[in-house]
Amino acid sequence: MDLSLLSGVFASPWDIFRNLLDIFIVAYVIYRLLGLIQGTRAVQLLKGLMILLVFSVAASYMQLDMLNWLLEKLWIFFAIALPIVFQPELRRLLEQLGKGSFFKSSSTDVDPQDYQVIIKEITDAVGILSRNRVGALIVIARETGIEEYLESGITVDSLVSSGLLINTFVPNTPLHDGALVIRDGRIYKAACVLPLSNDPQLPPQLGTRHRAGLGITEVSDALAIIVSEETGSVSLGRDRKLIRYLDAQSLRELLEKELINDDVKPTLWRRWSRG
Ligand SMILES: Nc1ncnc2c1ncn2[C@@H]1O[C@H](COP(=O)(O)OP(=O)(O)OP(=O)(O)O)[C@@H](O)[C@H]1O
C-alpha cells in the first residue's frame, strides 16, 4: 500500500498539529453555524440544498447532460437568491461576529438556583394573572436562536420579577400586547409578535395567543406559558404541544423539569433527544 500520501499529510509534528487545528476550527465553525440556524426556516432551506447537491453530484457522475444543465442554472439562481433569503441569519451572524459572541458558548448559562428564583417569580405572576383573567404570553428562550421573531419586540432587559411580569400584561398599557420573552435569565423583550401555529388539532376556541405560544415551540426549543384572558386557564407550550389547565404546582414542576433537571444533560444530547 502506498503510504506516501499519508506521509505528505503528516510530515512532521508541526504538520499534525496544523492539520488537527485546521479540522478543529472548521468543525467548530460548522457547529456554531448550525447552532445559529437551528430551529429557523434556514434549516429547511439547507436540507433542500443538500438534496439538490446530491442530485447534482449524481447527475454529473451519470453524465445526465440535460439534468446537469438544469441543475447548473438552478445553482446560479440560488447563488443570487440565497443571500436574500438568508438575510436575517446572515445579519445575525455578522452581528455576532462583530460583538464577539459567535465564539462564546451558546448554551444559556443560568445557574439552577437562579432558575429556582425565576420559576417562583413566574408562577407567582401567572397565578395572579390567571385569577384576574389577564391574558399573558411568556416565552422562555433556550438554546435555539429565535432572534428573528423578536425584532418586532421592545427591549426591556431586566431581572425577572413577578411585579414586572404582571405589570407588563395590564390591559391597555404599551407592552401588554404580544409576548414577553425571558432569555439568559432576564426579561429580554416584550410585545413580541411570534409565528402562529397552524396545528389543525388545536381546539377551535383557542385563538391567536395560544397559537402564537404554540407557534414558537414549533420553530424552537423555547417554552411558552399562556394565560387565557377568557377563562384564566394556564397552558404550557413545549415541543410543539400545549399542556393545558395547569395549576400553580404543576406549572412549577414542569418548569423545574425543563429548566433545571433537563439542564444537567449535555447540550448535544438534549438537541438529539428532542429530534
Ligand atoms: N402573533 C402573535 N404573537 C404574540 N402575541 C399575539 C400574536 N397574535 C395575538 N397575540 C396576542 O393574543 C391576543 C389575542 O388573543 P386571542 O383572544 O385571539 O387569543 P386566545 O388564544 O383566544 O386567548 P384568550 O383565551 O386570552 O382570549 C392579542 O391581544 C395579543 O396580545
TrEMBL record:
Span of the signal peptide: none
An annotated GO BP: cAMP biosynthetic process
Domain DAC as annotated: residue spans: 87-248
The reaction(s) this protein catalyses: 2 ATP = 3',3'-c-di-AMP + 2 diphosphate
Transmembrane segments: 16-34, 46-64
Broad EC category: transferase
Molecular function terms from GO: adenylate cyclase activity; ATP binding; diadenylate cyclase activity
UniProtKB keywords: ATP-binding, Cell membrane, Membrane, Nucleotide-binding, Nucleotidyltransferase, Transferase, Transmembrane, Transmembrane helix
Xref: InterPro entries: C-di-AMP_synthase, CdaA, CdaA_N, DisA, DNA_integrity_DisA_N_sf, DNA_integrity_scan_DisA_N
EC number: 2.7.7.85
Pfam family, one: DAC
Protein function: Catalyzes the condensation of 2 ATP molecules into cyclic di-AMP (c-di-AMP), a second messenger used to regulate differing processes in different bacteria.
HAMAP family: DacA
Family according to the record: Belongs to the adenylate cyclase family. DacA/CdaA subfamily.
PANTHER family on file: DIADENYLATE CYCLASE (PTHR34185:SF1)
Assembly and interaction partners: Probably a homodimer.
Record protein name field: Diadenylate cyclase
